[in-house]
Amino acid sequence: MKRTLAGWTACALVATAALSSCATFEEDSNVAVVNGTELSEETLAQMAESDMMSRVFQSPPTGGVIDGGELRSLLRVWALYEIYDQTGLLDEATKEQARAQLATEFGDSWESAPAEIRELAARSGALSALDNQGVLDPTVLQNAERDAVVRIDPKYGYWDAATTSIQPIGVAGPVAGG
Domain locations in the chain? Predict the structure, then answer.
């Protein structure tokens, strides 16, 4: 009987720890974490409300509200470019060239955009430049995507590693063999 009670106690402690770790993610101010790099709710809101994002989505937030699909797309782009940047393939010189080009292209919108949006755009430009030069190894990027530890606050959805996308809660990922 003592063994069973001890077993139940251990299970209860493990369950409590597991639940509290889930609650911790929901209670902090992060909407996403990629391999330890955090994206806060405040930064996400600044990104979503910026003029540059309105231009990218071609639809500004309505009444301060952004479409859920567009918000998940923004989170996905942030997560993927964070993963890619962590590979070391996106060197600073190439990102700086992209920043200069984007500053010219977007002008005042570039200067007033949140730093995180500017960094996403620079990473995108650097990735395109490296791809155009033929020096980008897609296998490295695919392996980084596969190995990444991505957590998304459940109120935004969940990270579907198979499709490298953020799905709304209640939407199943692809079925194997289907």
Answer: 29-167
Tokens at residue 178, please? 């289907």
Instruction: Give the Cα separation of 28 and 133 in Å (integer).
Output: 41
Contact 51, 113 (CB under 8 A): yes
Given a cut of 50, is residue 13 above it in pLDDT? Answer: no
Tell me, what's the pLDDT at 61? 60
Token reading at 12: 């209860």
pLDDT tens profile 62-112: 666 667 788 898 999 999 999 999 999 999 999 999 999 999 998 888 888
Strand locations in 10-56 (E): 30-34, 37-40
| Burial class of residue 176 (count of CB atoms within 10 Å of its CB; 0-12, 13-18, 19+) | exposed
* Confidence band of 60 (pLDDT split at 50, 70, 90): low
Q: Please, which residues have CB within 8 angstroms of residue 78's CB and are 6 or more apart in sequence?
A: 32, 34, 39, 44, 47, 116, 120
Q: Are 156 and 31 in contact (CB under 8 A)?
A: yes
